[in-house]
Design brief:
- The structure is a single chain.
- The chain is α/β, with parallel strands linked by helices and 370 residues long.
- It has 12 helices and 14 strands.
- A 7-stranded mixed sheet has the order 1-9-8-5-4-2-3, with helices on both faces. It has a 4-stranded antiparallel sheet with strand order 10-12-14-13.
- It is globular and about 70 Å long.
Length: 370
């Protein structure tokens, strides 16, 4: 079976993690590797500060909390995204408001944002889906016009750029995931980056149970969202390979583009002329013209030894969100459709051209005999 994704761990990661363990850098409160990872990763994104946390989900939770967003507030979120994006809002007592996505990039449709803004709207969380950046220049103009906080969800876009500027460096804060299948990984883990000194101080305070002086008297209800020192060591080793990893992911995508070109009914991923897509996953949509459903194609590919994974369920269609008091059922026809028709193909950056041609040839053969 060719898996959708698998982490690639080398000797450098093993060396760094072993060194961290030998130095006793176990907790998330101190250590050379934790501080080094935060500094190097935030600098890589073009931000001044980084706060390492236990996951991409807790990064979102922490960022929303640091922004002071809470009960009664509304936050506009991309409709096509992992549920974690909305949960960062929900677990702070606020209401996620989904905005539908574009037909080509599958990112949020910025042209729909202003129609969703109310007096209760406090922020926007754009998701750079599958590694293609949102047009942040357009989005930031809207946010500035309406005095809205912007928290970028960069879980899938490490190293992606919009007009040459890194995703994560546009908003007030940005959240990254280092889950096992992400561009770089710490197994589990995440980070919030920002260039705002006040937000940085708030993020650091809340991440670690809001300890102040005297130590065990707490003015605020903080969280234990810390990343361990040995996870940070692994992240630092991975970060120092990130340019090579991204180049290889783009090689995989360009090879797929060549091998899948011309297949009727198969919509391939795009890359706008102002964007650098890092192709976290190589995602496609199976339109009716293909001759069978996405589910049937996925079933037949699995029988050929090719794993796939579906797109995300639209936030408008999520049962857990529909139960929230005040949640608005906003139609998201594009996001709802691609949830039923989209999937991603094996995307590990070490895939060979032979592997990719096998996947593409399998799709062609399945369509031919359907």
């Amino acid at each position: 079976m060719i898996p959708v994704s698998e982490p690639i761990i080398g000797e450098e990661e093993i060396e760094f993690v072993t060194d961290a363990l030998r130095k006793g850098e176990l907790s998330g409160t101190f250590g050379h590797y934790l501080e080094g990872f935060e500094k190097e990763f935030s600098a890589y994104t073009g931000c001044k500060y980084g706060v390492a946390v236990s996951s991409g989900t807790t990064a979102l939770h922490l960022a929303v909390a640091a922004a002071g967003i809470g009960p009664g507030d509304e936050v506009i979120v991309s409709s096509s995204t992992n549920i974690a994006t909305a949960l960062g809002v929900v677990h702070n007592g606020a209401i996620p408001v989904p905005v539908d996505c574009e037909e080509q990039t599958w990112n949020l449709d910025a042209g729909l944002i202003e129609s969703l803004i109310t007096p209760n709207t406090k922020a926007i969380i754009p998701v750079h889906l599958f590694g293609h950046p949102v047009d942040m220049d357009v989005l930031m103009k809207i946010a500035k016009k309406h005095n809205l906080i912007v928290i970028e969800d960069c879980a899938e876009s490490h190293g992606a750029t919009c007009r040459g500027k890194m995703t994560g460096s546009f908003g007030d804060m940005a959240c990254f995931s280092f889950y096992a299948n992400k561009v770089i990984t710490t197994g589990e883990g995440g980070m919030v980056v920002t260039s705002d000194a006040d937000l940085y101080a708030k993020l650091k305070l809340l991440r670690n149970l809001a300890f102040t002086e005297p130590r065990f008297r707490h003015e605020e209800a903080g969280y234990n969202f810390r990343m361990t020192g040995y996870q940070a060591a692994m992240g630092l080793a991975q970060l120092r390979k990130i340019d090579r990893i991204i180049n290889e992911k783009r090689r995989v995508a360009h090879t797929y583009n060549k091998c899948l070109s011309g297949i009727t009914g198969l919509q391939l991923p795009t890359e706008r002329d102002w964007a650098k897509n890092v192709y976290w996953m190589y995602a496609v949509v199976v339109n009716p013209e293909f001759g069978m459903t996405r589910n049937e194609l996925a079933k037949r590919l699995k029988a050929q030894g090719v794993d796939t994974r579906t797109f995300f369920c639209s936030m408008s269609d999520q049962p857990c969100l529909q139960k929230i008091e005040g949640f608005k059922h906003i139609p998201t026809p594009v996001a709802s459709r691609i949830w039923e028709t989209g999937f991603y193909l094996p995307s590990t950056y070490t895939l060979s051209e032979v592997d990719i041609r096998f996947v593409a040839d399998s799709i062609r053969k399945i369509q031919k005999i359907s």
